[in-house]
């Protein structure tokens, strides 16, 4: 195991939130401040060790503490309790404009940033042309950065961060404001960093990106680490968390708009998978014909419901899905526990593990319930293809079509 380059020990961060007092509170506290002060713990007792050469994705719902954690690693925020220690040169791309002085030009900011990162003027000079070239904003390099668009900001900031030879790179979601070609360029550079054995810690809401890029994912929820490990396992925890947040939100809305109690909610109870002869099945070859039974529970007779099912990858990426409306079937009014049966013929899945979900949607298109990971499916193949779909491959070298192109 390689040595940790970032050690986060029992780290907590408290913010003091100031809220305006209500009129009543102001009268009661007459003469004193108009502001309430509340303590808010954005992070609680977080402990992590990040090894040299690893790429770690920090993920979690909005407000879970990802940026706060990254800022403490970057030294922009001080911990309330606990410690962070970092070994090696660290370059950070945290908030838009952080580390840039608005009244200085792009050129001056490159030198300022270089010196903050511990480079001499000569060293920054050596990297300068490559930085400007990578950023693609040479025309504006002598403009004050306060006139930059957010995309221009991030282009220059990322270019500086990756050209100053850092051992550790911290990247917050800011990259998302760059346009698509620039984002791709950044991703290529991050991959190059990985191959050079540098350490990367990045926050992303792009779960597929985390799965693709990272060798480890850490899931934060309300300031606590709730999963840490293989991206596949950690992201599964996060997707379940998102489903729960959504289910709670739906339940709250249902209670708010009508007097629907939890026992009155329409739910997906089960999803069962079998072959066409009704033999239950959890293993299949690449080409399969399947029956999927979705059991819904409808406490009171309801018209216009749409029921669906689908297959997700091991990371929760939807692979195929359908529903009664897409197939052109109007379901009759449903009441009680009812089974809707789908046939999925000629399914061609690549080798791997998948799972089925079932969902029920109201007449107006609002998703009422979704049961994820409701039934597993393992697809075995011959190892001759990769990816989510299967094909029968053959390969040969065609006859020469002329001399080499010059
Ligand atoms: N300077 C601050 N003062 C008060 N509260 C703050 C401050 N900075 C962050 N917070 C609060 O701390 C919590 C965590 O914020 P943080 O930005 O770390 O979350 P996040 O996981 O990065 O969220 P997002 O996915 O929305 O970017 C939030 O509730 C936020 O409102």
TrEMBL record:
* PROSITE patterns for this protein: ABC_TRANSPORTER_2
UniProt keywords, alphabetically: ATP-binding, Nucleotide-binding, Transport
InterPro entries xref list: AAA+_ATPase, ABC_transporter-like_ATP-bd, ABC_transpr_TagH-like, Bact_Polysacc_Export_ATP-bd, P-loop_NTPase, Wzt_C
> Where does the ABC transporter domain lie?
25-247
The GO cellular component terms are: membrane
Q: Where are the transmembrane segments?
A: none
A GO term, aspect molecular function:
ABC-type transporter activity
Alphabetized SUPFAM superfamilies for the sequence: P-loop containing nucleoside triphosphate hydrolases
Per the UniProt record, one Pfam family is Wzt_C
Indicate yes or no for the key word Glycoprotein: no
Xref: CDD domains: ABC_KpsT_Wzt, Wzt_C-like
Tell me which domain of life the UniProt entry assigns to the organism this sequence originates from.
Bacteria
**Family, per entry:** Belongs to the ABC transporter superfamily.
**What is the protein name stated in its UniProt record?**
ABC transporter ATP-binding protein
Which species is listed as the source?
Answer: Xylanimonas allomyrinae
């Amino acid at each position: 195991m390689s040595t940790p380059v970032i050690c986060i020990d029992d780290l907590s961060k408290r913010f003091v939130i100031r809220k305006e007092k209500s009129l009543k509170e102001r009268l009661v506290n007459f003469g004193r401040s108009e502001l309430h002060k509340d303590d808010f713990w954005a992070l609680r007792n977080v402990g992590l060790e990040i090894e040299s050469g690893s790429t770690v994705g920090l993920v979690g719902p909005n407000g879970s503490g990802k940026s706060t954690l990254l800022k403490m690693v970057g030294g922009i925020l001080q911990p309330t309790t606990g410690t962070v220690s970092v070994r090696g040169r660290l370059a950070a791309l945290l908030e838009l404009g952080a580390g840039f002085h608005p009244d200085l030009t792009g050129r001056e900011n490159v030198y300022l940033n270089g010196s903050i990162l511990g480079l001499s003027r000569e060293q920054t000079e050596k990297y300068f042309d490559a930085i400007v070239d990578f950023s693609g904003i040479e025309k504006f390099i002598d403009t004050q950065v306060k006139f930059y668009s957010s995309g221009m900001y991030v282009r220059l900031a990322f270019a500086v961060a990756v050209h100053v030879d850092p051992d550790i790179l911290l990247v917050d979601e800011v990259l998302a404001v760059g346009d698509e070609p620039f984002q791709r360029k950044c991703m290529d550079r991050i991959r190059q960093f990985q191959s050079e054995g540098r350490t990367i810690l990045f926050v992303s809401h792009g779960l597929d990106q985390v799965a693709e890029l990272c060798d480890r994912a850490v899931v934060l929820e309300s300031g606590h680490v709730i999963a840490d490990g293989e991206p596949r396992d950690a992201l599964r925890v996060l997707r379940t968390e998102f489903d729960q947040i959504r289910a709670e939100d739906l339940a709250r809305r249902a209670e708010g708009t009508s007097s629907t109690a939890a026992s009155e909610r329409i739910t997906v109870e089960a999803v069962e998978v079998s072959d066409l002869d009704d033999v239950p099945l959890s293993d299949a070859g690449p080409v399969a014909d399947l029956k999927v039974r979705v059991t819904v529970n409808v406490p009171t007779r309801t018209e216009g419901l749409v029921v669906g099912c689908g297959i997700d990858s091991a990371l929760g990426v939807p692979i195929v899905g359908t529903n009664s409306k897409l197939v052109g079937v109007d379901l009759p009014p449903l009441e009680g526990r009812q089974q809707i049966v789908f046939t999925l013929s000629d399914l061609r899945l690549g080798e791997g593990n998948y799972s089925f979900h079932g969902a029920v949607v109201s007449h107006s298109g609002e998703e009422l319930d979704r049961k994820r990971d409701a039934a597993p499916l393992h697809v075995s193949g011959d190892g001759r293809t990769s990816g989510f779909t299967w094909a029968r491959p053959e390969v040969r070298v065609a006859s020469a079509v002329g001399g080499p192109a010059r």
